[in-house]
Amino acid sequence: MAQTTRPNASAITSHMSTNNDSAPHIATAAQVQHNLQHQHLWTSLTSYTIPANTTQTEPLNAPKEPIPLISGYPPHRVYTHPDEQLYMLENKIKEDDLQPERMFVVPTTQGQSWSLRHMAVVFDKLPEFVEQAREQDGGSLGVKAADDPEKREQLARYYAKKEEVSRTGEWGSQRLLLAMIDKGMGGDGTVAYYVVQEGEVKPRQN
Amino acid sequence: MDSQPELPIPISYVSGRYLLHSIEAVTYLRREHHICGVLIGTLPQIPQQNVFLGLPLELMPEEARLLVDKDVACIVDEAKAQKGMNNLLEEDRRRYLRELEAEGLHYTRLQVDLKDSKREQTMKKLEEKKAKAGAKAKAVAAAAAAQTQTSEGAAPKSSMKDAAVVDLFAPDDTRSSSPATSTPSQSAMAITPATSYPPLPTPPSSTHLAAPAVPPSYPLFAHLHSRGYFLSPGLRFGCQYMAYPGDPLRFHSHFLVVSYDWDQNIDLMDLIVGGRLGTGVKKGFLIGGAQRTIDEVDSEADRVDTVRAFSLEWAGM
């Protein structure tokens, strides 16, 4: 009789087990990271964790469970604010002219506890991680050198404008992606991504 | 256009609903305070017609509360206030009825004048036509002069007939031979006033009801309202409120709004459902709530300052 052997673990399972799946939030993050890397071709993926807090006496204390975070560079822009899009159209700036931006992702799984507290804490901690990532990137991705002097001037104006509106929140304030996976029945590997922004940001004209 | 009703505007509390009956108040609140409410009045004769509704305007408890908190409006128990009708002095009552009749007469006169001017215009047109026809006939053949005279004679007869037709539809003045000169004194138009606040004295502030009880979503409502959004009930889109960036007659809404308590568990599937629905109708899905519960602060107003809101859209990936 031929001896039956267990098949090899799938790529995602082996990826998750090598990434220390002792804590559920780490396993969720590993699966989302895998999806970002291989399905959406993100690069420079980095993981972070917002530590848990045992007491929630203040509204902005972190929740009872740690929240994982991932950041990376998407191959294309994930989100463009409608007013920014209008500015780019008016000034004939194409998306490819712009330097890529690091995007943050919160991995979650269906059925996990989530509340406004979680959301607010993530957004409050985000600037720290953005700063951390900037240091890590070390400005190596600096402004893309445009050959055309006219284009260079246009881009400089765009970045100045961007700097200006980041203070007023005109083109939206902080944003991140909420990734949700389904683990029920083993899951089908689908990850749903939603753009979450702080405050009231008008919708895009899809 | 820019008339301002006397403040505070009385909001009628009738069997659990907050209603406004004065068109002046409705337009003022919409223009100055971004409160739209929902028109719920239908026609007594055609109650099935529910596409275009009219007064009264029903306000959400949140809207009524917001107006009361801003000292723009007050809540009046309508049943109790109407009992005051019996205490009205006989003299006041008569004077009020006389005023109503005078107003009705004014409108009747306006209508009669309008009808007269219309009739004059048609007469003039007929006259012109006739003159033209006459000139033509003269130019064609001078010999047919006799014929022209007969046609001229016939024309006034036909216009007389026209007048008779109009007469048929005039209200009960068939006995007067010339309708143009009659001013029917006894057939004043009946006026049904929409509000009972001129005859009744404005209720004293001691009789006002307390500010309306509001659902837990009130802080988010008040927060969005303070940011200039117009809010309307969200049943149509399966959310709590719809947020419009300006008057709903001029703008599409920006957000489907759902409020949560600070530590209320949010089913992530609800975020996906809302985000997906919002994106499907070119809107954002907005969730939010106050950081403090009502037990932790003195008033609802303190909670409004602590509201955090987040907008969601499908990322398209």
Automatic annotation (TrEMBL), chain A:
Coiled coil region boundaries: none
Assigned keywords, A-Z: tRNA processing
**Name the record gives this protein:** tRNA-splicing endonuclease subunit Sen15 domain-containing protein
User: What cellular component GO annotations does this protein have?
Assistant: tRNA-intron endonuclease complex
Q: Matching Pfam families, A to Z?
A: Sen15
Q: Where is the tRNA-splicing endonuclease subunit Sen15 domain?
A: 31-128
Sequence similarity? Belongs to the SEN15 family.
- Decide whether keyword Chaperone is in the record: no
Q: What InterPro entries does the database record attribute to this sequence?
A: Sen15_fungi, tRNA-endonuc_su_Sen15, tRNA_endonuc-like_dom_sf, tRNA_intron_Endo_cat-like_sf
Q: Which GO terms describe its biological process?
A: tRNA-type intron splice site recognition and cleavage
> Species name for this entry?
Penicillium olsonii
Which residue ranges are recorded for the region named Disordered?
1-22
One annotated GO molecular function is: nucleic acid binding
Domain of life from the UniProt record: Eukaryota
TrEMBL record, chain B:
Name the residue ranges with Low complexity bias: 176-195
InterPro entries, per the entry: tRNA_endonuc-like_dom_sf, tRNA_intron_Endo_cat-like_sf, tRNA_intron_Endonuc_cat-like, tRNA_splic, TSEN34, TSEN34_N
The UniProt keywords, alphabetically, are: Lyase, tRNA processing
* Gene Ontology CC, one term: tRNA-intron endonuclease complex
Q: Which residues form the active site?
A: Y244, H252, K283
Using the record's annotation, list all stretches that form the TSEN34 N-terminal domain.
Answer: 9-78
User: What highest taxon heads this organism's lineage?
Assistant: Eukaryota
Could you tell me which SUPFAM superfamilies the record lists for this protein? tRNA-intron endonuclease catalytic domain-like
Key word Cytoplasm present: no
The chain positions of domain tRNA intron endonuclease catalytic read 218-290
In this chain, the stretch annotated as Disordered covers 171-208
Q: What enzyme class is recorded for this protein?
A: lyase
What Enzyme Commission number(s) apply to this enzyme?
4.6.1.16
UniProt entry tagged with the keyword DNA repair: no
Alphabetically, the GO molecular function entries are: nucleic acid binding; tRNA-intron lyase activity
Q: What does this protein do?
A: Constitutes one of the two catalytic subunit of the tRNA-splicing endonuclease complex, a complex responsible for identification and cleavage of the splice sites in pre-tRNA. It cleaves pre-tRNA at the 5'- and 3'-splice sites to release the intron. The products are an intron and two tRNA half-molecules bearing 2',3'-cyclic phosphate and 5'-OH termini. There are no conserved sequences at the splice sites, but the intron is invariably located at the same site in the gene, placing the splice sites an invariant distance from the constant structural features of the tRNA body.
- What's this protein's family per the entry? Belongs to the tRNA-intron endonuclease family.
According to UniProt, the name of this protein is: tRNA-splicing endonuclease subunit Sen34
Species whose genome carries this gene = Penicillium olsonii
